[in-house]
Every structure is written in structure tokens, then in C-alpha cells.
Amino acid sequence: MLLNYLPILIFLIVAAGLAVVLLVLGTGLGRFFARYHNDPAKRSPYECGFDAFEDTRTKFDVRYYLVAILFIVFDLEIAFLFPWAVALGKIGLFGLVSMAIFLGILVVGFIYEWKKGALEWD
To answer: What is the pTM of this model?
Structure first.
């Protein structure tokens, strides 16, 4: 019974050994063959080729997060359309009506957000 798992054990040992060999060779040979120029201009922080205007740790406006969250929510809800489209032949009219109700609720939510001004950047 244990001999049935021998090929898996051999595969794991070879994979782990190959990973270790590649890591050792990659770090050792990479440092040996890498072109490194000790240039202060290359090591300095930059932002679009000139000095930063202000502190880079400024807070984002809350509206940015709101739009991002709304995008993620609607994007995930739209992702439900793909399995539904694949299985539409099997689920028939019940699936079509269910998805119509789901999309109706989605459209109502989108119109509500639009009317509330959640998608405005002003």
C-alpha cells in the first residue's frame, strides 16, 4: 500500500531539491553577474523626474474610497452573470426570471447611487 505513494514522495523530493538548487544558484550567480552601478542619482527617490511637491503620505479623499468600493460591489455582482449564462440552458425560465429580478435590484441600487451623487468627483 505504501509503495503506491512512492512516486509522489520522489516527485516532492526532486521538486524541493530543485527549488533549493535554483535558489542557491539564483542568489549566488545573480550577485556575481549583475551589473550594479553605484550612482547616487539611480538610488535617490524620485517622482516623475523631479522632487516631490509635498509629503507622500497624504490622505486620500473619502469619495475615492466610496467609488472604489462601489466599483468592487458592482463588479462582483456582475460576475454572477457568467455562471448564469453558462447554465441558462439547464435552469430555463426560472433562471431567467431570477436573473431579471437580480438585475432589477442591481439597476435600482445603481440609480439610487447615481441620484445621491456617490459617483461624482466634485
So the answer is: 0.45
